[in-house]
Amino acid sequence: MKIVITAVGVRGDVAPFTGLGRRLAEVGHQVAVATAQAHEPLVRAAGLDFLHLRGADSSHTAWEETGAGAVLSGARQYVEMMRELCEGVLTVAEGAELLLLHHLTIPQGYAVGTALGIPTMALELFPTAMAPTGDFPPAEASLPNLGRWANRHLDGVLRTLTAPTVRFFSDFQARLGLPAVGLNPMLRAMHQENYPVHHGFSRHVVPRPSDWRPGLEISGYWWPAVREDWTPSPELADFLASGPPPVFVSFGSMASSDGERLSEITAAALRKAGVRGIVQSGWAGLAVADNDDVLTIGEAPHEWLFPQMAAVVHHGGAGTTGAALRAGVPAVPTPLTADQPFWAARLKKLGVSPGSVPLRKLDADRLGELIHRAVHEPSLSAVADAVGEQVRSEDGAGQIVKAVELLD
């Protein structure tokens, strides 16, 4: 079967689909990942076909600015991206026998699949508005718990408010020969028909809500494909061997314009906590001076590096959150937006994190305190170890392989 996975987002959003795609390829499917041009090396390194997905490149915009002007600008960019993704998904669907749709491509892919007679399934990395529940608001909303009624109906309110901005979707449906009902009526129809949405995280981290409709499933994590040719640099290997386990620090792909400030805070926080550190330069361009206690690195596979850490400081993205849980080490999230505050709160509730500090409010004293607690509080390490065993025992990709086989 020719399968196309559509994936939109930064590296951490796309990487899990490389491992999933490889598993599907191993059982005989021809798999292509359609995503932003920047992720072509990531996809091809996993042995998968790459397709350029029009509209996916603009998803790299960092949401760091504040104020009404920034919100308005971001909204306009979002609408334009969704418009372009209509064309992008239609193009990459040519010749496909199954579409596996990630997040922002779900409505476009569902419409295309319906029009062309191609089966589709949705794949999500966190609980979204596609899966409303009273247990918590949609993770991408970055909101605290609003109570069961508001949590469950927030997605409908947001869709109503944004309906005028997505009028182009009716035109897209008409072009495909479908009833031009618009986006919101189509999403309601998908709920009514129990459209399948599989979630790539662990039920031990987020239990399946009891009020979810049929068709909403939690499979377990989909881990990125392992690079067989990767080896650590001599500097990294020597640093790890030269002392106690260090603390890993990275602020992900959304902290792309504040590298100098974050570098200073990171260096001071590690000193205050009295720990060694491995700092990933990342999109922020962190540049903490290397010494006996700190090493700055580029890319390194999380599945190799994280189990050797005493704790992990990260932005709270779904992929990095899962990797730290898999490694069985405590975490200190520094969330910025989207699903990151959701995962930060979840890690605290699980008992694998001493707490979090928002990236915009980051300071060395607070970060240093949280790092010290993450390293030295035995209860955090014990819970993290137990959760890690549960997460590692699951085969999330295998569950998707089974779901695909049922469609054959």
From TrEMBL:
Superkingdom of this protein's organism: Bacteria
PANTHER family recorded: STEROL 3-BETA-GLUCOSYLTRANSFERASE, STEROL 3-BETA-GLUCOSYLTRANSFERASE UGT80A2
Domain Erythromycin biosynthesis protein CIII-like C-terminal: from-to ranges: 292-405
The organism of origin for this protein: Allokutzneria multivorans
Coiled-coil regions listed: none
SUPFAM superfamilies, per database record: UDP-Glycosyltransferase/glycogen phosphorylase (SSF53756)
Pathway: Antibiotic biosynthesis; vancomycin biosynthesis
Glycosyltransferase family 28 N-terminal domain sequence ranges: 3-56
InterPro entries per UniProt: EryCIII-like_C (IPR010610), Glycosyltransferase_28 (IPR050426), GlycoTrans_28_N (IPR004276), UDP_glucos_trans (IPR002213)
Keyword field: Antibiotic biosynthesis
Protein name listed in UniProt: Glycosyltransferase
